[in-house]
Amino acid sequence: MNGMWSVPGYSQIRELGSGASGRVVLAVHDGTGTAVAVKYLNDRMLENPAFVREFRAEAQLLGALGSPYVVGLYEYVEAPGGAAIVMELVDGIPLNALLKQCGQTGPEAALVLLKGSLLGLADAHRAGVVHRDYKPANVLVAADGTSKLVDFGIATPMGTTPGAAGTPAYMAPEQWQGRPASPAADVYAATATFFECLTGRKPYDGQSFAELAVQHVEAPVPETEAPEPVRPLIRRGLAKAPEQRPEDAEAFVAELEGVARAAYGPEWEERGQRKLAALAALLPLLFPSAGAPAQGTTALATTVLPQPPVTWSPGRRGLVAAGATLVLGVLAVFGYQAVGAEPAGAKALNAFATSSASGPAPASPSAEPSIPPSPSPSPSPSPSPSATPSPSASAAPSHSGPPSPTPTPTKSPTPTPSPSVLVSAVSVTLKASPTVGDALVSLNAKGGSVTVVLEWFRGDAPNALTVADGTDSLTAPAGPQSTVSQRHAIARGGACYLTVRVSTKPAASPQYAYATSQIPRCVVVPR
Protein backbone atom coordinates (compact mmCIF):
# COMPACT_ATOMS: atom_id res chain seq x y z
CA MET A 1 0.00 0.00 0.00
CA ASN A 2 1.44 3.34 -0.97
CA GLY A 3 -1.30 5.50 0.50
CA MET A 4 -1.93 7.20 -2.87
CA TRP A 5 -5.04 5.32 -3.98
CA SER A 6 -8.06 7.55 -4.64
CA VAL A 7 -11.66 6.85 -5.57
CA PRO A 8 -12.08 6.63 -9.35
CA GLY A 9 -14.17 9.43 -10.82
CA TYR A 10 -13.23 12.07 -8.23
CA SER A 11 -10.56 14.77 -8.22
CA GLN A 12 -9.04 15.51 -4.84
CA ILE A 13 -8.76 19.13 -3.74
CA ARG A 14 -7.24 19.07 -0.27
CA GLU A 15 -7.24 17.21 3.03
CA LEU A 16 -9.85 18.27 5.57
CA GLY A 17 -8.84 16.14 8.54
CA SER A 18 -7.02 13.01 9.63
CA GLY A 19 -6.87 10.60 12.54
CA ALA A 20 -5.84 7.14 13.64
CA SER A 21 -8.13 5.32 11.24
CA GLY A 22 -7.76 7.45 8.14
CA ARG A 23 -8.21 10.82 6.55
CA VAL A 24 -10.98 12.93 5.04
CA VAL A 25 -10.42 14.90 1.85
CA LEU A 26 -12.40 17.46 -0.10
CA ALA A 27 -12.98 16.17 -3.62
CA VAL A 28 -15.09 16.88 -6.69
CA HIS A 29 -17.16 14.35 -8.64
CA ASP A 30 -15.77 14.58 -12.16
CA GLY A 31 -19.09 13.90 -13.87
CA THR A 32 -21.21 16.54 -12.11
CA GLY A 33 -18.84 18.93 -10.35
CA THR A 34 -20.36 17.95 -7.01
CA ALA A 35 -18.17 18.77 -4.03
CA VAL A 36 -17.95 15.80 -1.65
CA ALA A 37 -16.08 14.62 1.43
CA VAL A 38 -14.22 11.34 0.98
CA LYS A 39 -13.21 9.33 4.03
CA TYR A 40 -10.31 6.92 3.34
CA LEU A 41 -9.42 3.99 5.56
CA ASN A 42 -5.70 4.07 6.22
CA ASP A 43 -3.29 1.45 4.93
CA ARG A 44 -2.71 -0.26 8.28
CA MET A 45 -6.43 -0.81 8.74
CA LEU A 46 -6.76 -2.19 5.22
CA GLU A 47 -4.49 -5.07 6.15
CA ASN A 48 -7.01 -6.31 8.72
CA PRO A 49 -10.28 -7.75 7.34
CA ALA A 50 -12.11 -6.86 10.56
CA PHE A 51 -11.35 -3.16 10.13
CA VAL A 52 -12.43 -3.24 6.50
CA ARG A 53 -15.63 -5.07 7.38
CA GLU A 54 -16.62 -2.48 9.95
CA PHE A 55 -15.64 0.43 7.72
CA ARG A 56 -18.03 -1.07 5.18
CA ALA A 57 -20.68 -1.42 7.90
CA GLU A 58 -20.31 2.29 8.73
CA ALA A 59 -21.08 3.12 5.10
CA GLN A 60 -24.09 0.83 5.07
CA LEU A 61 -25.40 2.48 8.21
CA LEU A 62 -25.11 5.97 6.70
CA GLY A 63 -26.89 4.79 3.57
CA ALA A 64 -29.72 3.28 5.60
CA LEU A 65 -30.35 6.31 7.83
CA GLY A 66 -31.20 8.92 5.21
CA SER A 67 -31.59 11.54 7.96
CA PRO A 68 -31.44 15.28 7.27
CA TYR A 69 -29.59 15.62 10.56
CA VAL A 70 -26.86 13.10 9.69
CA VAL A 71 -24.25 13.47 6.94
CA GLY A 72 -25.47 11.56 3.88
CA LEU A 73 -23.82 8.71 1.98
CA TYR A 74 -23.17 9.10 -1.76
CA GLU A 75 -21.29 5.87 -2.37
CA TYR A 76 -18.93 3.30 -0.93
CA VAL A 77 -15.94 2.07 -2.96
CA GLU A 78 -13.67 -0.82 -2.07
CA ALA A 79 -10.77 -2.06 -4.20
CA PRO A 80 -7.41 -3.81 -3.75
CA GLY A 81 -5.83 -0.39 -3.38
CA GLY A 82 -8.08 1.01 -0.69
CA ALA A 83 -11.55 1.64 0.73
CA ALA A 84 -13.45 4.92 0.91
CA ILE A 85 -16.79 6.38 1.95
CA VAL A 86 -17.96 9.21 -0.30
CA MET A 87 -20.18 11.49 1.76
CA GLU A 88 -22.20 14.63 1.48
CA LEU A 89 -19.98 17.66 1.96
CA VAL A 90 -21.34 19.72 4.81
CA ASP A 91 -19.87 23.16 4.34
CA GLY A 92 -19.50 23.73 8.04
CA ILE A 93 -17.06 23.74 10.90
CA PRO A 94 -16.80 21.27 13.77
CA LEU A 95 -18.39 22.38 17.01
CA ASN A 96 -15.14 21.86 18.92
CA ALA A 97 -13.45 24.50 16.74
CA LEU A 98 -16.32 26.90 17.34
CA LEU A 99 -16.14 26.36 21.10
CA LYS A 100 -12.40 26.84 21.06
CA GLN A 101 -12.95 30.24 19.43
CA CYS A 102 -15.96 31.53 21.39
CA GLY A 103 -15.88 29.53 24.64
CA GLN A 104 -19.66 29.49 25.08
CA THR A 105 -22.61 29.69 22.72
CA GLY A 106 -25.32 31.01 25.02
CA PRO A 107 -28.36 28.98 26.10
CA GLU A 108 -30.58 29.40 23.03
CA ALA A 109 -27.81 28.47 20.59
CA ALA A 110 -26.85 25.53 22.81
CA LEU A 111 -30.46 24.34 22.81
CA VAL A 112 -30.57 24.54 19.00
CA LEU A 113 -27.40 22.48 18.76
CA LEU A 114 -28.70 19.93 21.22
CA LYS A 115 -32.04 19.62 19.44
CA GLY A 116 -30.46 19.11 16.01
CA SER A 117 -28.07 16.51 17.37
CA LEU A 118 -30.83 14.69 19.23
CA LEU A 119 -32.93 14.53 16.07
CA GLY A 120 -30.00 12.89 14.27
CA LEU A 121 -29.49 10.48 17.14
CA ALA A 122 -33.23 9.76 17.20
CA ASP A 123 -33.11 8.60 13.58
CA ALA A 124 -30.21 6.30 14.49
CA HIS A 125 -32.04 4.99 17.57
CA ARG A 126 -35.13 4.21 15.51
CA ALA A 127 -32.85 2.17 13.25
CA GLY A 128 -31.63 0.24 16.31
CA VAL A 129 -28.18 1.87 16.40
CA VAL A 130 -26.24 3.58 19.21
CA HIS A 131 -23.64 6.15 18.05
CA ARG A 132 -21.33 5.78 21.10
CA ASP A 133 -18.99 8.64 20.13
CA TYR A 134 -21.09 11.79 20.21
CA LYS A 135 -18.85 14.80 20.95
CA PRO A 136 -18.29 18.35 19.64
CA ALA A 137 -15.81 17.16 17.00
CA ASN A 138 -18.57 15.02 15.48
CA VAL A 139 -21.05 17.87 15.08
CA LEU A 140 -20.67 20.14 12.05
CA VAL A 141 -22.18 23.64 12.19
CA ALA A 142 -23.11 25.14 8.81
CA ALA A 143 -23.06 28.81 7.87
CA ASP A 144 -26.83 29.10 8.36
CA GLY A 145 -26.66 27.80 11.93
CA THR A 146 -27.93 24.30 11.19
CA SER A 147 -25.90 21.26 12.22
CA LYS A 148 -25.30 17.65 11.22
CA LEU A 149 -23.98 14.59 13.02
CA VAL A 150 -21.00 12.69 11.58
CA ASP A 151 -18.76 9.67 12.26
CA PHE A 152 -20.63 6.45 13.04
CA GLY A 153 -17.36 4.53 13.03
CA ILE A 154 -17.86 2.82 16.41
CA ALA A 155 -21.66 2.71 16.33
CA THR A 156 -23.18 -0.56 17.47
CA PRO A 157 -26.62 -2.17 17.62
CA MET A 158 -28.68 -1.57 20.74
CA GLY A 159 -28.26 -4.14 23.45
CA THR A 160 -24.86 -5.43 22.33
CA THR A 161 -21.91 -5.42 24.72
CA PRO A 162 -18.99 -4.31 22.57
CA GLY A 163 -16.73 -3.19 25.42
CA ALA A 164 -15.64 0.28 26.52
CA ALA A 165 -15.15 2.67 23.62
CA GLY A 166 -15.71 6.34 22.93
CA THR A 167 -14.24 9.68 23.93
CA PRO A 168 -13.61 9.74 27.71
CA ALA A 169 -14.86 13.27 28.39
CA TYR A 170 -18.32 12.35 27.05
CA MET A 171 -18.68 8.66 27.93
CA ALA A 172 -21.66 7.61 30.04
CA PRO A 173 -21.00 5.62 33.24
CA GLU A 174 -22.25 2.42 31.64
CA GLN A 175 -19.79 2.85 28.74
CA TRP A 176 -16.90 2.91 31.21
CA GLN A 177 -18.31 -0.22 32.82
CA GLY A 178 -18.65 -2.17 29.57
CA ARG A 179 -22.42 -2.57 29.89
CA PRO A 180 -24.74 -3.05 26.88
CA ALA A 181 -25.04 -0.14 24.47
CA SER A 182 -28.25 1.85 24.80
CA PRO A 183 -29.66 5.15 23.47
CA ALA A 184 -29.37 6.55 27.00
CA ALA A 185 -25.56 6.62 26.54
CA ASP A 186 -25.95 8.88 23.49
CA VAL A 187 -28.31 11.09 25.51
CA TYR A 188 -25.59 11.39 28.16
CA ALA A 189 -22.90 12.36 25.64
CA ALA A 190 -25.19 14.92 23.97
CA THR A 191 -25.95 16.45 27.36
CA ALA A 192 -22.24 16.64 28.21
CA THR A 193 -21.71 18.56 24.96
CA PHE A 194 -24.71 20.77 25.77
CA PHE A 195 -23.11 21.53 29.15
CA GLU A 196 -19.87 22.49 27.38
CA CYS A 197 -21.74 24.86 25.06
CA LEU A 198 -23.36 26.52 28.08
CA THR A 199 -20.33 26.79 30.35
CA GLY A 200 -17.26 26.65 28.12
CA ARG A 201 -15.94 23.54 29.85
CA LYS A 202 -16.61 19.82 30.03
CA PRO A 203 -18.70 18.45 32.90
CA TYR A 204 -15.72 16.67 34.45
CA ASP A 205 -12.09 17.71 34.23
CA GLY A 206 -10.16 14.57 35.16
CA GLN A 207 -6.61 14.52 33.80
CA SER A 208 -6.39 10.77 33.27
CA PHE A 209 -8.66 8.00 32.04
CA ALA A 210 -8.97 6.56 35.55
CA GLU A 211 -9.86 9.95 37.07
CA LEU A 212 -12.46 10.61 34.38
CA ALA A 213 -13.94 7.17 34.90
CA VAL A 214 -14.44 7.83 38.61
CA GLN A 215 -15.96 11.26 37.98
CA HIS A 216 -18.43 10.06 35.36
CA VAL A 217 -19.47 7.10 37.51
CA GLU A 218 -19.54 8.75 40.96
CA ALA A 219 -19.20 12.56 40.94
CA PRO A 220 -22.32 14.72 41.38
CA VAL A 221 -23.91 16.20 38.26
CA PRO A 222 -22.59 19.80 37.99
CA GLU A 223 -26.00 21.23 37.11
CA THR A 224 -25.58 24.41 39.19
CA GLU A 225 -22.92 25.67 36.77
CA ALA A 226 -25.49 25.88 33.97
CA PRO A 227 -28.16 28.61 33.63
CA GLU A 228 -31.02 27.88 35.99
CA PRO A 229 -33.78 27.41 33.34
CA VAL A 230 -31.95 24.54 31.63
CA ARG A 231 -30.72 22.74 34.73
CA PRO A 232 -33.52 20.14 34.52
CA LEU A 233 -32.11 19.04 31.16
CA ILE A 234 -28.59 18.77 32.59
CA ARG A 235 -29.84 16.86 35.61
CA ARG A 236 -31.84 14.42 33.49
CA GLY A 237 -29.33 13.95 30.69
CA LEU A 238 -26.30 13.43 32.96
CA ALA A 239 -28.03 11.13 35.45
CA LYS A 240 -25.70 8.34 36.54
CA ALA A 241 -28.14 5.50 35.93
CA PRO A 242 -29.33 5.10 32.33
CA GLU A 243 -32.89 4.38 33.46
CA GLN A 244 -33.00 7.83 35.11
CA ARG A 245 -32.32 9.55 31.76
CA PRO A 246 -34.77 9.94 28.88
CA GLU A 247 -35.03 6.52 27.25
CA ASP A 248 -33.83 7.78 23.87
CA ALA A 249 -33.07 10.94 21.91
CA GLU A 250 -36.64 11.37 20.69
CA ALA A 251 -37.95 11.44 24.25
CA PHE A 252 -35.28 13.99 25.22
CA VAL A 253 -36.29 16.29 22.34
CA ALA A 254 -39.80 16.50 23.78
CA GLU A 255 -38.40 17.50 27.18
CA LEU A 256 -36.02 20.01 25.60
CA GLU A 257 -38.73 21.77 23.64
CA GLY A 258 -40.90 22.12 26.74
CA VAL A 259 -38.06 23.60 28.78
CA ALA A 260 -36.88 25.91 25.98
CA ARG A 261 -40.32 27.32 25.26
CA ALA A 262 -41.08 27.88 28.93
CA ALA A 263 -37.73 29.58 29.59
CA TYR A 264 -37.09 31.56 26.39
CA GLY A 265 -40.42 31.90 24.60
CA PRO A 266 -41.72 30.57 21.26
CA GLU A 267 -38.98 32.23 19.17
CA TRP A 268 -36.05 30.60 20.99
CA GLU A 269 -35.11 28.36 18.08
CA GLU A 270 -34.92 31.11 15.47
CA ARG A 271 -32.79 33.28 17.76
CA GLY A 272 -30.53 30.36 18.64
CA GLN A 273 -29.93 29.45 14.99
CA ARG A 274 -29.07 33.07 14.15
CA LYS A 275 -26.60 33.10 17.03
CA LEU A 276 -24.94 29.92 15.77
CA ALA A 277 -24.67 31.36 12.27
CA ALA A 278 -23.02 34.48 13.67
CA LEU A 279 -20.52 32.42 15.67
CA ALA A 280 -19.68 30.26 12.67
CA ALA A 281 -19.09 33.39 10.59
CA LEU A 282 -16.19 34.24 12.90
CA LEU A 283 -14.24 31.28 11.48
CA PRO A 284 -14.55 31.64 7.69
CA LEU A 285 -11.23 29.99 6.90
CA LEU A 286 -12.25 26.72 8.56
CA PHE A 287 -15.12 26.08 6.15
CA PRO A 288 -14.32 23.43 3.53
CA SER A 289 -15.33 25.87 0.80
CA ALA A 290 -12.72 28.41 1.92
CA GLY A 291 -10.11 28.75 -0.81
CA ALA A 292 -11.43 25.73 -2.72
CA PRO A 293 -12.37 26.03 -6.39
CA ALA A 294 -14.95 23.24 -6.16
CA GLN A 295 -18.29 24.28 -7.59
CA GLY A 296 -21.27 22.33 -8.87
CA THR A 297 -24.57 20.82 -8.00
CA THR A 298 -25.49 18.37 -5.29
CA ALA A 299 -26.19 15.58 -7.76
CA LEU A 300 -25.55 12.28 -6.08
CA ALA A 301 -23.07 9.75 -7.36
CA THR A 302 -25.01 6.73 -8.49
CA THR A 303 -23.22 3.85 -6.80
CA VAL A 304 -25.12 2.60 -3.79
CA LEU A 305 -24.16 0.14 -1.14
CA PRO A 306 -25.85 -3.24 -1.61
CA GLN A 307 -26.73 -5.43 1.32
CA PRO A 308 -23.42 -7.13 2.15
CA PRO A 309 -23.45 -10.34 4.18
CA VAL A 310 -21.63 -8.85 7.14
CA THR A 311 -22.48 -8.86 10.80
CA TRP A 312 -21.77 -6.10 13.27
CA SER A 313 -18.82 -6.77 15.49
CA PRO A 314 -17.49 -4.47 18.17
CA GLY A 315 -13.94 -4.10 17.01
CA ARG A 316 -12.47 -1.49 14.68
CA ARG A 317 -11.07 1.96 14.57
CA GLY A 318 -8.28 0.79 16.85
CA LEU A 319 -5.12 2.46 17.83
CA VAL A 320 -1.85 0.92 16.77
CA ALA A 321 -1.19 -2.31 18.63
CA ALA A 322 0.70 -0.70 21.48
CA GLY A 323 -2.01 1.92 22.05
CA ALA A 324 -4.77 -0.69 22.02
CA THR A 325 -2.89 -2.77 24.57
CA LEU A 326 -2.56 0.22 26.86
CA VAL A 327 -6.28 1.01 26.55
CA LEU A 328 -7.25 -2.52 27.51
CA GLY A 329 -4.82 -2.45 30.40
CA VAL A 330 -6.29 0.72 31.87
CA LEU A 331 -9.88 -0.35 31.37
CA ALA A 332 -9.19 -3.66 33.05
CA VAL A 333 -8.23 -1.78 36.20
CA PHE A 334 -11.78 -0.59 36.87
CA GLY A 335 -14.02 -3.06 34.99
CA TYR A 336 -17.35 -2.72 36.74
CA GLN A 337 -15.84 -0.83 39.69
CA ALA A 338 -14.48 2.68 39.33
CA VAL A 339 -11.12 3.32 40.97
CA GLY A 340 -9.76 6.43 42.54
CA ALA A 341 -6.12 6.35 41.57
CA GLU A 342 -4.48 6.89 38.23
CA PRO A 343 -3.11 3.58 36.98
CA ALA A 344 0.44 3.22 35.80
CA GLY A 345 0.73 4.00 32.13
CA ALA A 346 -2.35 6.26 31.95
CA LYS A 347 -0.29 9.22 30.74
CA ALA A 348 1.30 7.09 28.07
CA LEU A 349 -2.17 5.94 27.10
CA ASN A 350 -3.26 9.52 26.58
CA ALA A 351 -0.37 9.96 24.18
CA PHE A 352 -1.46 6.98 22.08
CA ALA A 353 -5.21 7.68 22.02
CA THR A 354 -6.32 9.73 19.01
CA SER A 355 -9.57 10.76 17.42
CA SER A 356 -10.70 9.24 14.17
CA ALA A 357 -11.08 11.20 10.97
CA SER A 358 -14.60 12.35 11.67
CA GLY A 359 -16.12 13.58 8.46
CA PRO A 360 -15.13 16.78 6.74
CA ALA A 361 -13.40 18.35 9.72
CA PRO A 362 -10.39 20.67 9.48
CA ALA A 363 -7.11 19.37 10.76
CA SER A 364 -6.27 22.46 12.78
CA PRO A 365 -8.45 22.14 15.92
CA SER A 366 -7.15 19.81 18.57
CA ALA A 367 -9.08 16.60 18.86
CA GLU A 368 -10.36 14.77 21.92
CA PRO A 369 -8.61 11.48 22.65
CA SER A 370 -10.85 8.50 21.94
CA ILE A 371 -10.96 4.93 23.18
CA PRO A 372 -11.75 2.90 20.08
CA PRO A 373 -12.47 -0.81 20.39
CA SER A 374 -10.01 -3.35 19.04
CA PRO A 375 -11.07 -5.52 16.10
CA SER A 376 -12.83 -8.81 16.70
CA PRO A 377 -11.67 -11.88 14.78
CA SER A 378 -14.01 -13.04 12.05
CA PRO A 379 -14.64 -16.70 11.26
CA SER A 380 -14.40 -16.02 7.55
CA PRO A 381 -13.60 -13.00 5.40
CA SER A 382 -16.54 -11.04 4.04
CA PRO A 383 -16.71 -10.38 0.31
CA SER A 384 -16.50 -6.80 -0.86
CA PRO A 385 -19.78 -5.12 -1.78
CA SER A 386 -20.39 -4.56 -5.45
CA ALA A 387 -21.05 -1.14 -6.86
CA THR A 388 -24.26 -1.12 -8.88
CA PRO A 389 -25.66 1.91 -10.73
CA SER A 390 -28.93 2.96 -9.09
CA PRO A 391 -30.23 5.93 -7.10
CA SER A 392 -28.19 6.91 -4.09
CA ALA A 393 -29.00 5.44 -0.73
CA SER A 394 -29.28 8.85 0.84
CA ALA A 395 -30.92 12.05 -0.28
CA ALA A 396 -29.81 14.18 2.64
CA PRO A 397 -29.37 17.83 1.65
CA SER A 398 -25.94 19.31 1.16
CA HIS A 399 -24.66 22.82 1.53
CA SER A 400 -23.00 22.65 -1.87
CA GLY A 401 -25.90 23.90 -4.02
CA PRO A 402 -29.28 22.95 -5.52
CA PRO A 403 -29.96 19.34 -6.51
CA SER A 404 -29.42 18.19 -10.06
CA PRO A 405 -32.26 16.24 -11.69
CA THR A 406 -30.09 13.58 -13.34
CA PRO A 407 -27.09 12.13 -11.49
CA THR A 408 -24.17 10.91 -13.55
CA PRO A 409 -22.86 7.37 -13.06
CA THR A 410 -19.37 6.82 -11.74
CA LYS A 411 -17.03 3.97 -12.44
CA SER A 412 -16.24 1.74 -9.51
CA PRO A 413 -13.71 -1.07 -9.05
CA THR A 414 -14.54 -4.55 -10.26
CA PRO A 415 -16.87 -6.14 -7.70
CA THR A 416 -16.15 -9.37 -5.92
CA PRO A 417 -18.70 -12.16 -6.34
CA SER A 418 -21.77 -12.17 -4.12
CA PRO A 419 -22.08 -14.91 -1.49
CA SER A 420 -23.72 -18.19 -2.43
CA VAL A 421 -26.36 -17.85 0.31
CA LEU A 422 -28.66 -14.82 0.30
CA VAL A 423 -31.11 -14.03 3.09
CA SER A 424 -34.06 -11.64 2.93
CA ALA A 425 -37.56 -10.94 4.29
CA VAL A 426 -36.78 -11.97 7.86
CA SER A 427 -39.75 -11.60 10.22
CA VAL A 428 -40.68 -12.92 13.64
CA THR A 429 -43.83 -13.29 15.68
CA LEU A 430 -43.90 -13.85 19.43
CA LYS A 431 -46.41 -15.13 21.96
CA ALA A 432 -45.70 -15.14 25.67
CA SER A 433 -47.20 -17.03 28.58
CA PRO A 434 -46.26 -16.31 32.20
CA THR A 435 -43.30 -18.67 31.93
CA VAL A 436 -42.35 -19.17 28.26
CA GLY A 437 -42.15 -17.33 24.98
CA ASP A 438 -42.80 -18.94 21.59
CA ALA A 439 -41.16 -17.34 18.56
CA LEU A 440 -41.83 -18.16 14.92
CA VAL A 441 -39.25 -16.90 12.44
CA SER A 442 -39.84 -16.81 8.69
CA LEU A 443 -37.35 -15.84 5.98
CA ASN A 444 -36.30 -16.29 2.39
CA ALA A 445 -33.07 -18.27 2.06
CA LYS A 446 -31.57 -18.67 -1.39
CA GLY A 447 -28.61 -20.95 -1.99
CA GLY A 448 -28.45 -22.92 1.24
CA SER A 449 -29.36 -23.18 4.89
CA VAL A 450 -29.13 -20.21 7.25
CA THR A 451 -28.16 -19.87 10.92
CA VAL A 452 -30.87 -18.01 12.86
CA VAL A 453 -29.88 -16.38 16.16
CA LEU A 454 -32.60 -15.43 18.66
CA GLU A 455 -31.62 -13.06 21.47
CA TRP A 456 -34.13 -12.77 24.32
CA PHE A 457 -34.62 -9.72 26.52
CA ARG A 458 -36.88 -8.69 29.38
CA GLY A 459 -37.95 -5.12 30.09
CA ASP A 460 -40.66 -2.84 31.44
CA ALA A 461 -41.68 -1.49 28.03
CA PRO A 462 -42.23 -2.90 24.54
CA ASN A 463 -38.99 -3.51 22.62
CA ALA A 464 -36.91 -2.68 25.69
CA LEU A 465 -33.61 -4.57 25.51
CA THR A 466 -33.03 -4.02 29.21
CA VAL A 467 -32.15 -7.42 30.67
CA ALA A 468 -30.60 -10.15 28.52
CA ASP A 469 -32.50 -13.40 28.97
CA GLY A 470 -30.53 -15.86 26.85
CA THR A 471 -29.68 -16.71 23.24
CA ASP A 472 -30.76 -19.55 20.97
CA SER A 473 -29.30 -20.62 17.64
CA LEU A 474 -31.23 -22.58 14.99
CA THR A 475 -30.72 -23.68 11.40
CA ALA A 476 -33.32 -22.70 8.82
CA PRO A 477 -33.45 -24.70 5.59
CA ALA A 478 -33.18 -23.07 2.19
CA GLY A 479 -36.43 -21.96 0.63
CA PRO A 480 -38.57 -18.93 -0.25
CA GLN A 481 -40.73 -19.32 2.89
CA SER A 482 -38.46 -21.07 5.35
CA THR A 483 -39.61 -21.11 8.97
CA VAL A 484 -38.18 -22.14 12.34
CA SER A 485 -39.72 -21.95 15.80
CA GLN A 486 -38.24 -21.75 19.27
CA ARG A 487 -39.67 -21.98 22.78
CA HIS A 488 -37.84 -20.00 25.46
CA ALA A 489 -38.19 -20.32 29.23
CA ILE A 490 -38.49 -16.84 30.75
CA ALA A 491 -36.23 -16.20 33.72
CA ARG A 492 -37.76 -14.76 36.84
CA GLY A 493 -37.09 -11.08 37.32
CA GLY A 494 -40.28 -9.05 37.42
CA ALA A 495 -40.13 -7.47 33.94
CA CYS A 496 -43.45 -7.36 32.10
CA TYR A 497 -42.38 -7.52 28.47
CA LEU A 498 -40.50 -10.18 26.56
CA THR A 499 -38.67 -9.15 23.39
CA VAL A 500 -36.86 -11.32 20.88
CA ARG A 501 -34.29 -9.94 18.46
CA VAL A 502 -33.55 -12.12 15.44
CA SER A 503 -30.46 -12.00 13.21
CA THR A 504 -29.08 -14.39 10.62
CA LYS A 505 -25.75 -15.63 9.35
CA PRO A 506 -25.24 -14.57 6.57
CA ALA A 507 -26.84 -11.28 7.57
CA ALA A 508 -30.04 -10.01 6.02
CA SER A 509 -31.05 -6.39 5.62
CA PRO A 510 -32.27 -4.97 7.91
CA GLN A 511 -29.90 -6.88 10.12
CA TYR A 512 -32.43 -7.42 12.92
CA ALA A 513 -36.09 -8.36 13.21
CA TYR A 514 -37.89 -7.71 16.49
CA ALA A 515 -41.04 -8.90 18.24
CA THR A 516 -42.31 -8.08 21.69
CA SER A 517 -45.13 -9.40 23.89
CA GLN A 518 -46.48 -8.46 27.26
CA ILE A 519 -46.12 -11.27 29.75
CA PRO A 520 -49.60 -12.26 31.00
CA ARG A 521 -50.50 -11.56 34.61
CA CYS A 522 -47.62 -9.11 34.91
CA VAL A 523 -48.67 -5.64 36.04
CA VAL A 524 -46.75 -2.68 34.62
CA VAL A 525 -46.36 -0.11 37.39
CA PRO A 526 -46.37 3.48 36.02
CA ARG A 527 -43.32 5.49 36.97
Q: Could you provide a short overview of the structure?
A:
This protein has 527 residues and is α+β, with helices and mostly antiparallel strands.
Tell me what you see in this structure.
With 527 residues, the chain is α+β, with helices and mostly antiparallel strands. Among the domains are: 92-286, Transferase(Phosphotransferase) domain 1 (Transferase(Phosphotransferase), domain 1), CATH 1.10.510; 422-518, Immunoglobulins (Immunoglobulin-like, Sandwich). It is built from 12 helices and 19 strands. The strands form 6 sheets. The protein has a 5-stranded antiparallel β-sheet. Strands 16-15-18-19 form a 4-stranded antiparallel β-sheet, with no helix packed on it. A 3-stranded antiparallel β-sheet has the order 6-8-9. Strand 13 (422-432) and strand 14 form a beta hairpin. The radius of gyration is 23 Å and the shape is globular.
Q: Which regions are unreliable across 5 or more consecutive residues at pLDDT < 50?
A: 292-367, 374-419
What is the CATH domain class of the domain at 92-286? Answer: Mainly Alpha
**Assembly context of the chains:** single chain
What proportion of the residues form beta strands (DSSP E)?
15-25%
Main sheet? 5 strands, antiparallel
Mean pLDDT: 74
- Helical percentage: 25-40%
Distance N to C terminus: 57 Å
Structural class category: alpha+beta
Count helical runs. 12
CATH-scheme architecture of the domain at 92-286: Orthogonal Bundle
Question: C-alpha Rg, in Å?
Answer: 23 Å
Strand segment tally:
19
CATH topology of the domain at 92-286: Transferase(Phosphotransferase), domain 1
Under CATH, the homologous superfamily of the domain at 92-286 reads Transferase(Phosphotransferase) domain 1
Shape: globular
Biggest β-sheet: strands ordered side by side in the sheet: 1-2-3-5-4
